[in-house]
Amino acid sequence: xxxxxxxxxxxxxxxxxxxxxxxxxxxxxxxxxxxxxxxxxxxxxxxxxxxxxxxxxxxxxxxxxxxxxxxxxxxxxxxxxxxxxxxxxxxxxxxxxxxxxxxxxxxxxxxxxxxxxxxxxxxxxxxxxxxxxxxxxxxxxxxxxxxxxxxxxxxxxxxxxxxxxxxxxxxxxxxxxxxxxxxxxxxxxxxxxxxxxxxxxxxxxxxxxxxxxxxxxxxxxxxxxxxxxxxxxxxxxxxxxxxxxxxxxxxxxxxxxxxxxxxxxxxxxxxxxxxxxxxxxxxxxxxxxxxxxxxxxxxxxxxxxxxxxxxxxxxxxxxxxxxxxxxxxxxxxxxxxxxxxxxxxxxxxxxxxxxxxxxxxxxxxxxxxxxxxxxxxxxxxxxxxxxxxxxxxxxxxxxxxxxxxxxxxxxxxxxxxxxxxxxx
Length: 424
Fold this sequence. Notes:
Elements: H1 2-27, H2 33-38, E1 53-57, H3 61-66, H4 68-77, E2 82-87, H5 90-99, E3 105-108, H6 114-124, E4 128-132, H7 138-146, E5 150-156, H8 160-168, H9 170-177, E6 182-185, H10 188-196, E7 204-206, H11 210-217, H12 225-230, E8 236-243, H13 247-261, E9 265-271, H14 277-285, E10 291-293, E11 308-310, H15 317-323, E12 326-329, H16 342-346, E13 351-353, H17 361-369, E14 373-375, H18 381-390, H19 396-407, H20 410-423
Parallel strand pairs: 1-2, 1-4, 2-3, 4-5, 5-6, 6-7, 8-9, 8-12, 9-11, 10-11, 12-13, 13-14
Helix pairs in contact: 4-20, 6-7, 13-18
């Protein structure tokens, strides 16, 4: 029954979604390959051993990176396993190719129709399906169980809004969550929310937040030759990371007075989504300040004079955080919900973030408790940046290390849970 109802409503939605999505991609000059993958028009890997496949679904960039220590442990302890990944964003797909070059396939998550999943799963016969954080799709899970896969949610979470939505459609929610064998969750808040949806406590386990462990387990940042060409001794670098529409201007307007009083201050912008790179660069140029584009940095002009830099390449932030004096993390000065501020803390740099951090409250609490970050309104950002440029608490670096030392362990607990599932 639920397959019919789910497919009917999804088909009606697709009639509206697909034309609008196609027009949007055409206007952005983007490839239609992603749309083909959404429709399931992909070639499947032929060199896989049925019964040894692990299908991993990570919605976006953060989830893809967070899984690294668990996937690494699974490969080390169970080398017979073969991995296939699915994503909702292009940035996640590119990051997965970098982190998991051994995978048998990387796919945009297709529309949740039964015939698409029947083709995938009848061919691959996955032994294990790992769902990261959220993004619950009925037919994906239902089809996985039909071929005998073990299904687990790792680094699991559910927002209060999602909880209310699922409560309004409780029978449908029951049908979805009945297809997840075990829930490995970030904290007790999420455990209690899933419990309100009737998930038995025997199926739920609090394992901690994988994003903390992933920062420790991934490789150290590599030097950025192009940035070394334009970074002078004495430069004060502020990285403005993961910004969303409207946020660059808000932050730059706040910091402009500091550019006048601090001649060695340079601001490096890194928008969250690559399709915005060019438009943000054009907007920055309109501010009348010397602005560089990272991909166009001329290595022959060491010490080139500039005030603003647009980082138009993915995968740079870890290195940039190691080079900066402090970082401002976006998605928090506009109502997005925030991003992972602990990436800055791991580089042992002060981090500033705005009031809209409702999706990252656990990290906010850690940053404030260990005094390694500050939450500020946009009208207080200038003073907070100026203070951080001029002085850093001598105990700051030890506080950063203590935060991670006390907060690790999610990867080992999650792996132990998955291992138990595979043995049963």
